């Protein structure tokens, strides 16, 4: 159940262009909330909601030093998405293998 | 912009355990709405909303024959998620390479 909820949160976090833009920017290295907000076309409070959501799902970490809050990507967190996708892919490959075996068995010379 | 909206829809579709369960089941092969709904713990109209959302994002195809609607996974659709993840991963690797070059340059014997 915990993994289900984790996936819900992470996929939901990725379902928004502002949040994906933050992830994309942080892929190049840490940045302050101010820098990140400067690239977004919304008010700071609206932008902060996106930052908080990314943080709550564990996709980013943030830390405050004086008046500056710095955000950093938590790459490991992307594993929940990648593992889920890999799991689906394994199912598809197993199915392809089964179909292949079926076709070979059906076309083998019955004599 | 079109790709942005595509990603929004696909990630949102994946942010729900019922919809992920449908995708998981269809990974083993096509199934009727009736079969799929039997595994879910909700009314058929509620379940159909999930099916329609998966169909609208292109993650599944459905076709009606008589009274039976059959659902099939559209594996190609997962490429939008995989491409986006691969794009982020490339950024991270470029950053690691830059850091590595920086560390090597900083530690090289200056004599």
UniProtKB/TrEMBL annotation, chains A, B:
InterPro entries: ArsR-like_HTH, HTH_ArsR_DNA-bd_dom, WH-like_DNA-bd_sf, WH_DNA-bd_sf. It comes from the Bacteria. CDD domains: HTH_ARSR. Residues 1-93 form the HTH arsR-type domain. GO terms for molecular function: DNA-binding transcription factor activity. Pfam families: HTH_20 (PF12840). This is Helix-turn-helix transcriptional regulator.
């Amino acid at each position: 159940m915990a993994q289900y909820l984790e996936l819900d949160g992470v996929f939901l976090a990725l379902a928004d262009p502002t949040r994906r833009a933050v992830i994309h920017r942080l892929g190049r290295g840490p940045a302050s909330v101010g820098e990140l907000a400067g690239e977004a076309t919304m008010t700071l409070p609206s932008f902060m909601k996106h930052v908080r959501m990314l943080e709550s799902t564990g996709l980013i970490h943030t830390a405050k030093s004086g008046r500056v809050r710095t955000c950093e990507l938590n790459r490991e967190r992307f594993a929940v998405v990648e593992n889920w996708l890999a799991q689906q892919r394994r199912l598809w490959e197993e199915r392809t293998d089964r179909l292949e075996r079926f076709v070979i068995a059906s076309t083998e010379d019955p004599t």
